[in-house]
Specification:
The structure is a homodimer. By secondary structure, chain A is of the alpha/beta class. Chain A has 3 domains: 301 residues, Thiamin diphosphate (ThDP)-binding fold, Pyr/PP domains (Rossmann fold, 3-Layer(aba) Sandwich); 181 residues, Thiamin diphosphate (ThDP)-binding fold, Pyr/PP domains (Rossmann fold, 3-Layer(aba) Sandwich), CATH 3.40.50.970; 131 residues, Rossmann fold (3-Layer(aba) Sandwich), CATH 3.40.50. Chain A is 41% helix and 14% strand. In chain A, the strands form 5 sheets. The first copy, chain A, has a 6-stranded parallel beta sheet with strand order 10-9-11-12-14-13, sandwiched between helices. Chain A has a 5-stranded parallel beta sheet with strand order 1-2-3-7-6, with helices on both faces. In chain A, helix 1 crosses helix 3, helix 1 crosses helix 11 and helix 7 crosses helix 15. Chain A is elongated. The model of chain A has no long low-confidence stretch (mean pLDDT 97). At the A-B interface, helix 6, helix 7, helix 8, helix 14 and helix 16 of A face helix 6, helix 7, helix 8, helix 14 and helix 16 of B.
Amino acid sequence: MNDQPTLDQLSINTLRFLAADAVQKAKSGHPGTPMGAAPLAYTLWQRFLKHNPRNPAWPDRDRFVLSPGHASMLLYGLLHLTGYDLPLEELRSFRQWGSKTPGHPEYGETPGVEMTTGPLGQGFAHAVGMAVAERWLAEHYNRPGHAIIDHHTYALVSDGDLQEGVASEAASLAGTLKLGKLIFLYDDNDIQIEGSTDLAFAENVARRFDAYGWQVLGPIDGNDLGAVEAAIRQAQADAARPSLIVCKTVIGFGSPEQGTAKVHGEPLGDASLRAAKGVLDWPLEPAFYVPDVVKAHMGQAVARGRIAEEDWQEQFAAYAAAYPDEAAELVGQLRGDLPADWDAGLVDLFPAGTPLMASRESSGKVLNALVQRVHALTGGSADLAPSTKTHLAGYGDFGWDEYCGHNMHFGVREHAMGAIVNGMALHGGLIPYSATFLQFADYMRPPMRLAALMGIRALYVFTHDSIGLGEDGPTHQPVEHLLSLRAIPNLTVIRPADARETAEAWRAALLNRGGPTALIFSRQALPLLSDDDGQQAKGLQRGAYILWQSGASQPQVILIGSGSETQFALAAGKQLATGGVSVRVVSMPSWELFDRQPAEYRESVLPTEVRARVAVEAALKLGWERYVGLDGAVVGMDGFGASAPANVLYEKFGITAEAVAAAARKLIAQE
Amino acid sequence: MNDQPTLDQLSINTLRFLAADAVQKAKSGHPGTPMGAAPLAYTLWQRFLKHNPRNPAWPDRDRFVLSPGHASMLLYGLLHLTGYDLPLEELRSFRQWGSKTPGHPEYGETPGVEMTTGPLGQGFAHAVGMAVAERWLAEHYNRPGHAIIDHHTYALVSDGDLQEGVASEAASLAGTLKLGKLIFLYDDNDIQIEGSTDLAFAENVARRFDAYGWQVLGPIDGNDLGAVEAAIRQAQADAARPSLIVCKTVIGFGSPEQGTAKVHGEPLGDASLRAAKGVLDWPLEPAFYVPDVVKAHMGQAVARGRIAEEDWQEQFAAYAAAYPDEAAELVGQLRGDLPADWDAGLVDLFPAGTPLMASRESSGKVLNALVQRVHALTGGSADLAPSTKTHLAGYGDFGWDEYCGHNMHFGVREHAMGAIVNGMALHGGLIPYSATFLQFADYMRPPMRLAALMGIRALYVFTHDSIGLGEDGPTHQPVEHLLSLRAIPNLTVIRPADARETAEAWRAALLNRGGPTALIFSRQALPLLSDDDGQQAKGLQRGAYILWQSGASQPQVILIGSGSETQFALAAGKQLATGGVSVRVVSMPSWELFDRQPAEYRESVLPTEVRARVAVEAALKLGWERYVGLDGAVVGMDGFGASAPANVLYEKFGITAEAVAAAARKLIAQE
C-alpha cells in the first residue's frame, strides 16, 4: 500500500505523524489509535462529512464524535487540515496550559469539537442523542421538498467504548428507535491496555449489534479506503437501521510496536518514532510536517463546506418563504431561545387553596404547562414516567412510528438516558430532560458530569428524593445523593419546598443556559408555604431567601430548610417565636444559586454574626457545615434509611419540626 | 392447568397470594412479578436448589439472587415456606418498621437473602461475582475426589435487569470467563412500567446473549414446570457456558389486569385480588393462607438441606484428613480471617531514604507484599492495571485457562467490576479488590453504595486522584469525587499522604470487615513525610493525627492536609514556624476513620478553640467546612481542572505550600 504513496496515503500519514509528533513533544498522550484509525477518519472526513470548517455552528452539518477521546490528536489533525481555526501552533502545544488542544477533546475549547470525550462509552451514547435530535427536528420541521434538517451522525468507536454498559444501553435503544442516520466506525484493533482484547472481551460484537437491530457491516480492512467508503455508502443506504462498520485496524500502525498495548498510551519514543517514519516513507524532520499537497487536498474542505452551507441557506430561504412560521420557530429553537411569554401563567398554577401536592406532581403540572409554549421541551424517563410525572400529555411518543413525539421512552437505562439527553442538547434545537428516582442518579453521574464540564442545558428530573418515599426502603432512599450532586461543579441542584417553588425551579432550569440543572422532587405531598400568591417563591432564583421571620430585629437563631423539610423549619420557627425566640426561617432550595449571589445578599440572608443556625434536610448532615459552621446544628440523616411508611421514618430518624426547635433551643442556651 | 390443582400448583399459588396479600396489607409493593415468576422460582427451589434453611451460611450452598428486588415477597415466601427463620408474622409485617421483610431484600436483615437488590442490573452482575468466587475457590482447593467447593449460582432476572448496562458488561465478561455454573432464569413478561417492552426494548435478547458466549435456552412457557426443569438440567449440563433460560411469563398471573403494567408496582386492590383468588381457586380468606400440604411439601427443604450439608461435612472431613493444610487455609478464608502475621514486614517496605514514590506505586508494592501472606487477596482493574499498579506479579490471570489466577481482567467495565467484586466478597472466601482511575468511580457508584449498605469487605482502588495526573485534563481529573465518595455512608475513604501511610491504608482496609473501603492514590511521586521509621504513620488508623507541630503550646493555627497535598501543609507549617507562628500540621487521610474516634481524641487533634484552620486538598473545597468551619479557609479547587503538566496545574490553581501559608497568615491576622 505504501509503495506508491498516493495523496490519500500522504494525508493519512500526515494525520498519523501529527499525532505521534505531538504526543512525543508533549511527552504524554496516545499515539496508537490515531495511527491505527487515521484511514477510517480520513475516508469519512474527506469523502463524506458534510461540514463547514468556517462555521462549526451550521445547524445541518453532519455530527462527528470521537468516542475514544484519548485519540484527540487524530481529531485535532483533522480539524487543522480541513481548515478549522486551529493553527499548527496549537497542535505543537498539545496538552499544554492555555492551548486549544487539551489531552482529551473538550466542547467549547476547540472549534469543531462536537462534544467532550474521554470517559469511554460516552461518545457512543451521546451520538445517539444527537441522532434523536436530528430525527425529531426533521419530523417536526421538514416539509415536502424542504429537507431542512437532514444530516448524519457519525462516530468513531473503540473496543473500550463497546465494553462500557452505557454504550450497550444506547445501542439497544438506537436499534429500537431505528435511527438509520447513525453510522459508527468501529476501530477493531484487538488491543486494550492490559493486552489482547481476548482477555476480557471474547464476545461476538457483530452478532450483538445485529441482535440490537443494527445493520452490521464488515469486518473490513480499515486500511482499505475503498472498502471503508463502500461500507459507509451501504450504511447510508439503510434508512431504518443504525449501522456499525467493523473495521480491522492495527494500533500504532507503522511503529515497530504496532499491534501491541505498548503503543496505546505513551509516546513512541525517539527510536520507534523514527522507525515508524522510516517504514511509512515519512521525512524524519521536521516534526509536525504537513506536505503542501496534503494541505491543499484536505484544505478543499473549506470550499466544499462553504458551498454546502450556501446551498443549505438557499434551501432554508425557500423554506422560510413557504413556511414562515415554522422557519421562525425552528430558528428560535436552534438558537436555544425561549419564546416570548414562555413562562406566562406559571405563577397562577398554584393559587391560594391549592391542596397538598407532591412536588413531583406540581412538577408534572408545570412541565405540561411549559410545553404548551416551549416547543423544544422534550424528554422522558427511564421507565418511570408514571411515578416521575414527566409525561407530556397529548405530545406523543418519540419512536419508530411517530418521530414527532415529545415523550422519550428510555427503558431502564439511566446511564444512556443521561448521555442521550446531553446529546440532544448538544445537537441544538431541543431542551431535553431526563427523569428517574433520585436514587438512580448514581447510574448517570458520568454524563451529568460531562454536561457540567461542557456547560450545556440538559435537565435532569429526580423524584422520590428522600426517606419520604417510604416503604421501598434504603435501596431506593437517597441520603448522600443531594450532596454528591451538589459536589459536581456547574451542576445546579434545586430542591423546591412547595408547588410554587417547583414552578420557579423549572423557570430557573430553563433560564440556566450555561450548564445542566438537577430538579429534585418529593414523592410525598407538601403544603404551600407562602401565602402571597407566589411572589415570595421567586426568591428561589437567588437560591435561598427569608421565608418567614418573627420580627424585624436580628434573629437569635436561623432555621434553614430545603425541599420537603422546609415546612419543618417553618413550623419550628413559629413554635420558637411563640416561646419568645427571635427567629428567621430561610428556604434554601439551591446551594449553587445562593453561592452565586453577591456577598451582600448572602450576608443579608445569613448574617455572619448569627451563629446559632439549624439546617434541616432529610438527607446526610454532611455538607451543611458550609452554612451552619462548627457552632450550628443539622437535623438530618447519619446513614441509610429503612423500609417503613414515610411518616414513621421521619419520626424514627428524628427529622421533625420538634427536633428542629429542640436543636435551636440547645444552640441558644449554649450561647 | 388449574383444573387439577396439584401440590405444585398449590405451592405456586401459595407463593403468589402470600405476595399479593402482603402487598395489599402493606398498601405498597409489587405483586406482579411474584405472581408471574412464582412457577420459575418454585421449580428451581423445589427441584434443584442446594441449600440448608437451618444454616444459611453453609459455604457450599447454591447461591440464589433475586435481581428484580421489587419482587421481594416472592423471595420472602420461598424463605418462609422452605423453613428459614422467617415466620409468617414477618410476612404480615411486610415493609413495616423493624420487620425482617423490607420493601426490597436486604442482606443481613433476612436469613437466606444472599444480597441486597432493588437497583436493577445489580443482582445480575453481583451473581457473576459469586460464580467467579466459586470457580476460584474450587480451582484452588478442590482435589481429585474432593469437590469441596461445587455449587451453582442462580438468579432470576427481569426485563429491567437486562436493559441496564451493568448487566450487559457482566454478561460479556461471564461469557468470556466461561462461567458454566451460572444459570439465570429470565422472567420475560413483555411488560415494564411505561407499558410494553416494545416501547424501548425491541432487541433480540437471546441472540445478544448468544453473542456473549452464553448458552441460551427457550423461550419456554414459564408456567410449564416440566419445561423449566428440563431447561435447568440442560443449563447444568453445559460446563463451559453460562446459561440464560428465556421463560415467557405473565406478569400478575391470575389477576384481571394480568399482562399489563397496572399489576407491576401497586396493590391489586380488593376487587382484583378477590378475582385473582377466584380464578386460581384460592380461598378468599384468610389472607396469608398456607395450606398444610404446602407447608409439609415445601418444608421438606429442611430435611433435604440438613442431609445435604451433613454429606458435605463428611466430605469435608475426608478432605481435611487428606489435605489438612489446604482445609485449614480454606476454612480461614471462608471465615474471612486474616492469617497470623498477615501484615508483618509492611512497615519495613519504606525505610528512611525511600525515594520519591507515587502512592499508586507504593500501593503496588504493598499489595504484592500482602498477597504473599493473604491468599484470599484477588482482584484486578478495568483495563488499567499497568497504570493502577494493581497487578499481582506471579499470581496468574483468572480466566478460562487458569482459574486459580489472582489477577482479574475486567475489561473497560467499571460498573460491572464494582458489582463483581462485591459478589466475590458476598460469596466469601476472597478479599476482592477493584482498580481504576478515581475519575471513573462515577461509573461504579451503584455497587459501591450497595456494598456500604450490605456492610461487606470490598476494596476499591482509585488512582490518578487529582489534577496531579496532569495532561489528561479535566475529563480525567477528579475534583468532586473525594467528597462524593465520603458522602456514601459506611464507605471508608482513605487518601494516604506517602508510602508509609499507603501501607497503613491497606492495613486499615483489610481490617475493615464491616464495610467497603476506597483507597485513593496519586499518579505523581510523593516524598516520605515522617522520619521515624513508620511508627507515626500508624496514626492513619485514627483517620487524622498530628504530623508535626512547632512547639508544645496550643497552636495559633492548624493546617490540615490529605494525600499528595499533605506535603504542602507540612512545608507551610515549617515556613510559618520559621516566622514565629505556633502551628500544628495534621495529616487527615480519612474523614470516616477520624469521625469514628472518641470525642477526646478528636478534640486533641482539632481543639475547639483553635478556629484558625486551613485545609488543603487538590479537590473541591466544598465539604471541608466540616473541619474548618465558617472561620477557616480551604486551599483547593472551585471547579474543573485543565490539561497541562501537573506542576503547572498546581501553580495555576494556587494549590501550593505558599498558598497554605498565606491563608494561615490571613486567618491569624483576622483574629
